[in-house]
TrEMBL record:
One of its GO terms (cellular component) is nuclear pore outer ring. This is Nucleoporin Nup133/Nup155-like N-terminal domain-containing protein. InterPro entries: Nucleoporin_Nup133/Nup155_N, Nup133-like, WD40/YVTN_repeat-like_dom_sf. The keyword tRNA-binding does not apply. Keywords: Nucleus, Transport. It comes from Aureobasidium melanogenum (Aureobasidium pullulans var. melanogenum). SUPFAM superfamilies: Nucleoporin domain. It is found in: Nucleus. The keyword Nucleus applies. Residues 2-136 form the Nucleoporin Nup133/Nup155-like N-terminal domain.
Length: 263
C-alpha cells in the first residue's frame, strides 16, 4: 500500500494505491487498486490497473514492495529480480519492467523512494542490488503505453553487451511488435551507427580504429540480437544490414592500411 502525494494537501481526502495479488501462489495475477478514503461515505474504488509485465518466475521467490514517489504519476513495484514501472494516471497506461540477469546471481535487497522533484516532474526510486551496488530508476510522465521497439533494441545492443551489465535486455513475452516495426527500427539504428549519428556512439575515442571498432561491435550486436530475440526479418532488410556491416569493416581495413603506410 502507498499513499499518493496528493493526499498531503490541506483538507484533501486520503488517496491510496493498493497492490493486490489474486489467484494461486504458483501463478498469481497482480493489479493496483486506486482507493479514496472519504470521511463520511467510507472508501471509494477509483480504478484498477492490471499489471501484465511481471515475469512468471518472480512471484515464486519474492514478496513485492510498492513505491509511489513524488509527484505520484508512476508506481514502482519491486520484486527480488525485477522492478515493474507502471503509470497510475488516467491519461497513460504505460508499463515496463527492468529485470536482472539470472546468470549474474544478483538480487534486489532494498529499495526506497526519491522525492527530489525536478523541472520535468520525474518520479524516481533507488534500489540496492546485492553484489553490484546502487541503481536509480527514473520515469517521466508519458502518454504512450509501452517503450518503442527502437528504444528496446538500442538498450540491448549498447548496454546489454557491456561486460559488467546486470540487466536483462532480452525480449519479453508481452513485447509484441509487428515485423514492419522491427525492421524499420533495425534499419534506423543501423543507419545511425553507419553515419555516427547515434547518441550511443561516443564522438571521441582514443583512435579512429577504436571508433570504427565500436561501431562494428554495435552493428554486430544489432544483427545477433535480432536473430536471437525476434522473428526473421525480410531478405531486403537482411541484405541492408549486411551491407552496412561490410561498409564499416571496409572502412576499418582502409584506415589500418593507411596508418601502416604512413608509419
Amino acid at each position: 500500500m502507498a499513499i499518493t502525494p496528493a493526499s498531503s494537501a490541506p483538507d484533501a481526502p486520503l488517496q491510496l494505491v493498493l497492490f493486490v495479488q489474486a489467484g494461486p501462489a504458483s501463478s498469481p495475477s497482480y493489479a493496483m487498486a486506486q482507493v479514496t478514503m472519504e470521511t463520511q461515505d467510507g472508501a471509494r474504488l477509483d480504478g484498477i490497473i492490471r499489471i501484465n509485465t511481471v515475469s512468471p518466475d518472480s512471484p515464486a521467490t519474492s514478496r513485492p514492495r510498492l513505491l509511489l514517489p513524488k509527484p505520484g504519476h508512476t508506481a514502482f513495484i519491486v520484486f527480488e529480480h525485477e522492478v515493474v514501472v507502471a503509470s497510475i494516471t488516467k491519461s497513460s497506461s504505460f508499463q515496463d519492467v527492468i529485470r536482472l540477469r539470472s546468470d549474474k546471481h544478483v538480487t534486489i535487497e532494498g529499495a526506497c523512494e526519491e522525492d527530489l522533484i525536478d523541472t520535468k516532474g520525474t518520479s524516481s526510486c533507488a534500489i540496492f542490488i546485492k553484489g553490484h551496488g546502487l541503481a536509480r530508476i527514473s520515469a517521466t510522465q508519458t502518454n504512450v503505453s509501452h517503450s518503442s521497439i527502437k528504444t528496446k533494441i538500442e538498450q540491448a545492443i549498447f548496454y546489454g553487451t557491456m561486460s559488467d551489465n546486470v540487466l536483462d535486455f532480452s525480449r519479453r513475452p508481452y513485447d509484441r511488435y509487428d515485423i514492419e516495426e522491427t525492421e524499420e527500427a533495425a534499419l534506423s539504428i543501423s543507419a545511425e551507427i553507419l553515419r555516427s549519428t547515434s547518441h550511443f556512439i561516443p564522438p571521441l575515442t582514443s583512435s579512429m580504429e577504436a571508433h570504427l571498432q565500436n561501431r562494428i561491435k554495435a552493428i554486430r550486436a544489432l544483427i545477433l540480437h535480432l536473430r536471437s530475440d525476434y522473428p526473421p526479418v525480410s531478405r531486403p532488410t537482411s541484405w541492408r544490414l549486411l551491407l552496412d556491416a561490410e561498409k564499416l569493416a571496409a572502412a576499418q581495413a582502409i584506415w589500418i592500411a593507411c596508418e601502416e603506410r604512413s608509419s
